[in-house]
């Protein structure tokens, strides 16, 4: 059985990785048609005339892939984590057909929840790279994670929001 990870198992500085996921033109177009029907995401000829010069993935497609990789990177959390939002989302480079995406997930902070003593709040910085080690997306998120025991000591928990 896979060991579940609790709040106490996510100290600031811990790093997790996952990927790659290969992005191809068919997936870019399929996502674009359904969720972001702009020419640069759904039509190769129109995309060639765009500022990108070729078909590119929607930023939201990149975000969906990054979310999948974020979940794959983390060890299992009892009951799953509960995200509280996303901050500082950026797409510094487009994702193109043939890109292989991977993520690095770093714990930047961990603190006990003020309103839910049975949980802690873990802040992650998620960076998505292509096969050339270029950053294609970056964001931060805080996730509510169950504590091992509500009375467990937490002297070593620290970080930007501690």
Considering the chains and any ligands shown, give keywords for the structure.
162 residues; alpha+beta; Thiol Ester Dehydrase, Chain A; 5 strands; elongated; disordered C terminus
Mind telling me which CATH architecture this is? Roll
Q: What global shape is seen?
A: elongated
Please give the CATH class: Alpha Beta
CATH superfamily annotation: Hotdog Thioesterase
Proportion of residues in β-strands: 25-35%
Classify the helix fraction into a percent range.
10-25%
Low-confidence stretches: 158-162
The helix-and-strand class reads alpha+beta
DSSP strand tally: 5
Give the SSE order as H and E letters. Answer: EHHHHEEEE
Q: For the residues shown, what is the average pLDDT?
A: 93
Number of helices: 4
Biggest sheet statistics = 5 strands, antiparallel
- N-end to C-end Cα span: 32 Å
- CA-based gyration radius: 18 Å
CATH topology: Thiol Ester Dehydrase, Chain A
Strand order of the largest sheet: 1-3-4-5-2
Total domain units: 1
């Amino acid at each position: 059985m896979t060991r579940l990870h609790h709040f106490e198992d996510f100290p600031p500085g811990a790093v997790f990785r996952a990927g790659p996921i290969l992005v191809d033109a068919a997936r870019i177009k399929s996502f674009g048609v359904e969720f972001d029907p702009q020419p640069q995401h759904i039509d190769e000829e129109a995309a060639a005339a765009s500022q990108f010069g070729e078909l590119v993935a929607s930023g939201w497609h990149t975000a969906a892939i990054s979310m999948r990789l974020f979940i794959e990177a983390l060890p299992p959390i009892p009951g799953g984590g509960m995200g509280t939002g996303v901050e500082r989302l950026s797409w510094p480079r487009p994702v193109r057909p043939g890109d292989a995406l991977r993520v690095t997930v770093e714990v930047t902070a961990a603190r006990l929840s003020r309103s839910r003593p049975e949980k802690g709040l873990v802040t992650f910085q998620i960076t998505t790279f292509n096969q050339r080690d270029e950053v294609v997306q970056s964001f931060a998120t805080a996730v509510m994670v169950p504590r091992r025991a509500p009375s467990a000591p937490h002297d070593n928990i620290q970080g930007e929001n501690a």
